[in-house]
Amino acid sequence: MQFIRIAALKDLRRRLSDPAALAIWIGIPVVLAGMLSFISNTGGTPPRARILLVDQDKTALSGLLPAAVRQVNAPFDIEDVALDAGRKRMDDGDATALLVIPAGFQNAVAGTGSAELKLIINPAQQVLPAMVRQAMEVLVESAFYSQRLFGGPIRKIAAGTGAPPSAADVASIAVEINQQMAALQGVLLPPVINLTVKREASAPPLNFGQLFLPGMLFMSFLFIAQGMSIDVWDEKREGTLQRLLAAPQSAGQLLLGKLIAGIGVTTVVSVVGLLAAVFWFGVAPSRLPAALLWCAFVSGALIELLTFLNLFASSQRGAELLSSVLVFPLMMLGGSFFPFEAMPAWMAAAGRWTPNGLGVATLKELLYGNVSVTALGIGVLGIGIPATLAFVGAWRRLRSFANA
After folding, report:
1. Is residue 118 helix, strand or coil?
2. 3-state DSSP assignment of residue 328
3. Cα separation of 151 and 108, whole Å?
4. Is the peptide bond before 205 cis (omega within 30 degrees of 0)?
């Protein structure tokens, strides 16, 4: 045990002698988490379309339009303006759209005339004008079918003189509407198609920062594992590896000391990243111990896998190239560059079975959800068995590597 402790302290001192690299490793989760927090908290209020309305009809029906929009809570803000003022504001880019309701609009809806709605949209905007255009298309379609179904009653209402309608007129309109509704009984009441929506209770969706943070943390672990695993080549070049292996202690103890030192570094990075998750993304502090143990376990496994790989390279430069060729595809597939939720299904399915992908998926459950014992066991075995085999293989390879 004393030799393992000495070997671990030796590697930690060597890491501390390069504070720049250590600062980069620790700073990766801090900087990225801060950026993700800023992005997640920017633009919290959804955009709304500003529609300038020019009502040239000045009838009861044209006045119903802004009231109807406000009733359905559409993402539109309607403002009444004069035509000249509206055109000037559109030229200045101060609105999403300008809608002109011409005189005769109510008569056109009643079927006793014609009218043309004019919609002028802001070309500098992309999504909101399309939403306004679609809403206007729905309005036109609704007016058409309302006229086809209830044209008679609508014409009687539009033909009013402005005085209160008589009881006979009200009764006549009501009877006509009731007769039309009765004719539609088999189509609308009940409807031909019934839609049943079932909502299952689920956790609130994760925001942008919460999705990316676990992958960013494991990106840092992969960089640390790459730097720590290449250390065997540094010690071989300096001759210290051969002298250490000349001691009566086994090569396995030396590797174990290196592993403990690597886990010590990744634990510091884990603490920093997880505290950022608490302060910036609302993760409960009670979830940190399990998440910290998981990060230590997976980061140690990554160090062992890359150490085993580097021991079979023909040179230090070849080892650096070989580890880079492996690390960057792992980042791509394992949820570090893109969260699994944003990947194609086949890529996400493959990425979740990479060592860091298993780590990222389980860490998300530990931080935001409820990981099952079965899923945790699969993760432990899926990561632990290859890492154990890599440790044993590196143990057997280390002496021949030092003497080569």
Report:
1. strand
2. helix
3. 11
4. no
Whether 354 and 333 have beta carbons less than 8 Å apart is answered as yes
The answer to whether 360 and 331 have CB atoms below 8 angstroms apart is no
Q: Which residue type does 52 have?
A: L
Query: What pLDDT, on a 0 to 100 scale, did the predictor assign at position 39?
Result: 56
Phi first, then psi: give them for residue 383, nearest 5 degrees.
Answer: -95, -40
Reported as a single tens digit per residue, the pLDDT across 204-224 is: 566 666 777 888 888 888 888
Residue 209: the pLDDT is 67
- Number of neighbours of residue 22 by Cβ within 10 angstroms: 17
Per-residue pLDDT of 165-212, as tens digits, reads: 667 766 777 777 777 667 766 665 555 566 676 655 555 566 666 777
Domains contained in the chain, CATH given: 2-41+206-403 (no CATH), 49-154 (3.40.1710.10)
Within 64-110, strands assigned E span: 76-80, 97-101
Q: Which two tokens stand for residue 13?
A: 């001192």
For residue 285, is pLDDT > 70?
yes
Q: For 101, phi and psi rounded to 5 degrees?
A: -95, 110
Looking only at the bridges linking them, the beta strands covering 118-121 and 97-101 are: antiparallel
